[in-house]
Amino acid sequence: MRKGLYARLVIACAILLSVLLTGLGIVLGQFFPLFAENSHLALQHQYWLFLIVTLVIAFLLSLFIASKMMLQYARPIDEMTKIATRIANGDYLARVQTSESEYDNDLAKAINKIASDFQEMSTQQAMEKERLKTLIESMGSGLLMFGRGGTVNLFNEVFKKTFGLSEHEVVGKTFKDIGLPIAIENLIEDVFMTEQVHAKQIRIDSSDHPAYMSVYGAPVIGIHGNWLGIVVVIHDITELVRLEEVRKDFVANVSHELRTPITSIKGFTETLLDGAMNEPVIMKEFLGIIQKESDRLHLLIDDLLELSGMEREGFSLTYAAVNVKEMIHDAMRIVSRSMERKKMKIVTEIPKNLFIEADASRLIQVMVNLLSNAISYSKEETTITVTVTSSMNEVIINIQDQGIGIEQSELPRLFERFYRVDRARSRDSGGTGLGLAIVKHLVEIHGGRVEVESTIGVGTRFCIHLPITHDK
Hints:
single chain; alpha+beta; 13 helices
């Protein structure tokens, strides 16, 4: 028997018919003695049997007719109840089929309209949820959201990676339980206590290097003014702080490097004007110093202008087929006089007929800078070794000297502008402190990279990786 309204109606009808027919049978059974008082017992039994059979047949026939009539009205309601239950359980694709006339009514249309509206709302909600998730995960900053109860109910991948936390260590925990830096905990507590916006920059010391964070905390207020929690945005500004420090160092270094020769020129000029110019020997010595400082100042300004020009957006290279061996020999000829003064020699190991697409003049400039550094920081009568190897995609040029070497802690900053390992030695050698910055910039413009290895008292090796072909 079918469950639902139809089954309940059939059962109720059967019970009602049973009661009515049973009562009717009892009533009819009382009439027989009135008409056949002296009848035989067998005749009475026949009467009772006939009455019972008639009532049973009447019961079955009435129940059958009633069930057929109820089926026409109850079955659509049962079917629509099932559809409504599926919709209530989240199956918004369920629909009442109105193709049959018994299902084509206002209730079926209303159920289908509700299902359609719920499906549209669900689709819209899923899209909004996906957009929100994409937005949160695409943020370059860490996001942390606390609910009314003060526990975390939302965070993004950036936050998880920044602090190395897993989901079970964050979700459902208070800000005291997560293990955030004290400065961030204090800011979150201030937002909870005051329900006001708070922002600060903090420094986090770690074993590798300090990190700098910009932390912003704000209360989340609903459309009706009710307090929903707070949101905390954490942005890593370590690189910005580093660049700002580099900028400050650059300004300070430029000022210092310009002040030194200018002070010398000004001082010796004033000395000459005060009377030293009447002494030919002293005047010649002072003029020589002024010329030397002027040349150094001119070289410094030229390097600054050249580096600035390289970083300008319109800067470009003139690419052509460059014979690597000829390019290195051209650079060696430029530094040959410096080599002779220190009685040094260069040993080369360069394959013949090795060509790359590059700007020959810029590569010579790179090699001259590296060879000049190797000469300046090496002792007399030592050797510089230049080796070149190639693979399918790149050419590798190694310049190895037998110089004083560089501390490992100094290597990461070696290519910064004006950074010197030994300032006094560099200034005496006539260096501007911009040579390696120019080298790095030119190599990177060619699509390559430059690496450095050094051992104190043994020497330094610069390794230049250059692509064989130029990607246009």
